[in-house]
Amino acid sequence: MASEALTTRAGRATPTGRRRPRSARAGLTALAVVLSLISIFPVLWMVTSSFKTRATVTDGNLIPRDFTFDNFVYVFTEVPFARYLWNSFFISAVITVAALFFHSMAAYALARLRFPGREKLFGAIFATLLVTAPVVLIPLFLVARELGLLNSYAGLIIPAVFNAFGIFLLRQFYLGLPRELEEAAIVDGCGHWRVYWNIVLPMSRPILSALAIFFFLANWNAFVWPLVATNDQSLTVVQLGIASFQNQYTSNWNYILAAATVAALPMLVLFFVFQRQIVESIKTSGLK
Fold first, then answer.
1. Along the chain (288 residues), what's the average pLDDT of each consecutive run of 10 residues?
2. pTM over 0.90
3. What is the 3-state secondary structure (H, E, C) of 150-190?
4. Which of 116, 147, 188, 218 is deepest in the core (most CB within 10 A)?
5. Contact, 137 vs 228, CB < 8 A?
């Protein structure tokens, strides 16, 4: 009887022990769903409101009663918004390509090459992450003015290329790569450049893909530096274009939301296409 009672108790304890993880998992899932809905709702409201008329854009309804495409037609016909999009795309693409190239070389040198002051140099680079952008805004503007970079694509691109975050993340990733492949290539007569180009870079595709998304997104949404560095209308980026919409069409939120939707849509598509690479890069970046 005692053994049967213990068996019965053990049989009851097992399902009870299993219910706790399931209930905890269900609670976390519900919390994740709620937080996701809270995060998605502003974007969804922006997209649906961009199809509303001026009279109904502030009615508080999520679904438009009077569905119209006139807002988007106005954005692309009455305002040079296509030029704004091209400027943002060109600047973001050039910065992304240049940053990945220079950051990957610097990170490889800091991770694999031995030279005096390597750790101190990396510490100095890493310390720049603690300095916020507004602190260096005025010195950066003065340097750009002395070099004649204001009101030019070069002035919008060059200061944004060098970023300690990319160097840090790539260095941590390279430290996690097996040295055997590189050592075998060096034994076969390869120099550091061939090792970097033919071995390290192909193995870095996941982290490079994620950094490309981060860099492109950050520069697509850049506002402060383009506002300070340019006053030429032909160099206006998309975020400055939306800000000008807010100044010119203060009460016409249908135009403002249509412009914001056009600016946000490429980034949303880019994120959903490459979200797997972003997650994999964080998992394999070697952060400790």
1. 45 47 81 88 89 84 84 88 93 95 94 90 90 88 93 93 90 88 83 88 86 90 92 90 78 85 86 73 52
2. no
3. CCCHHHHHHHHHCCHHHHHHHHHHHHCCCHHHHHHHHHCCC
4. 218
5. yes
